[in-house]
Amino acid sequence: YIVPTPIGNLGDMTFRAVETLKAVTMIGAEDTRTSGKLLKYYEIDTPMFSYHKFNERSRVDKVLDLLGNGEDVAIITDAGTPGISDPSSILISEVLKKDFDVETLPGATAFVPAIVSSGLNCNRFHFIGFIADKEKNKIELLNDLKNEKSTMIFYESPHRLHKFLNQLLTTFGDRKVAIGRELSKLHETYYRTTLKKVTHSPEMITLKGEFVIVVEGAIAVDMNDEEICDLLKKELDDGKSKKAAVKIVCENTGVKRNRAYELALKL
Length: 267
Hints:
With 267 residues, the protein is α/β, with parallel strands linked by helices. It has helices at residues 15-23, 32-41, 56-68, 89-97, 111-118, 135-145, 161-172, 195-200, 225-237, 242-253, 257-265; strands at 26-29, 48-50, 73-76, 125-129, 151-156, 176-181, 189-194, 211-215. It folds into three domains: 10-97, Cobalt-precorrin-4 Transmethylase, domain 1 (3-Layer(aba) Sandwich), CATH 3.40.1010; 110-215, Methyltransferase, Cobalt-precorrin-4 Transmethylase, Domain 2, CATH 3.30.950; 225-266. The strands form two sheets. Strands 4-5-8-6-7 form a five-stranded mixed β-sheet. Strands 2-1-3 form a three-stranded parallel β-sheet, sandwiched between helices. A hairpin with a 7-residue loop joins strand 6 (176-181) and strand 7 (189-194). The longest helix has 13 residues, at 56-68. The mean pLDDT is 92.
């Protein structure tokens, strides 16, 4: 069983989650000390074992052995749903390979209330979560996302928040953004603003707790064939190949690659 746990408010634990944790043989917990408080609160005395990103692979065998002996196992994290920016994806994959059942209970996760409360389009969204620590990888990912038309959702820690918001502004340009902190807790706060405003007035945000950043997707640019050809010609005149010119124009405008390539062939 994959069992979500509250992201800040203990009252968000579901009846089914409590019943499941009481019924299983063992619970794999990201931090047994943190989860121990939750289990004590709900009078759950099921034994736990540690299960986190640093021992995930080695714990797979333990879980498979338990399942093979007919036991039921639940996996929980410190907060939220396992597998969403938390360990368990490797385990789930291995369990399914061995033809055991995986049942995921619905429950708490930070990005759902964040996007619903953001005021931005939540019919289509792209969840990214925490992104790479390495600067090069982070910039590459943001460049890949700058023409993403769906609303985007990121997680970030307080000590890196302002730098990340500046990187978003540099890569995406000015867009609407909603920043949530301390979600479901006493001091839950939303900052609904723009990337330019928040980076120019960083003091508006209290740097405490984990942050969920909801960013407006790219607005499609309606360009006619002549305008696209002009951009392609500029890149070709600069010595770019047709393939390279098409790639650059598509990345900068959001024009579909097939359309740009057909126009490039006519030049």
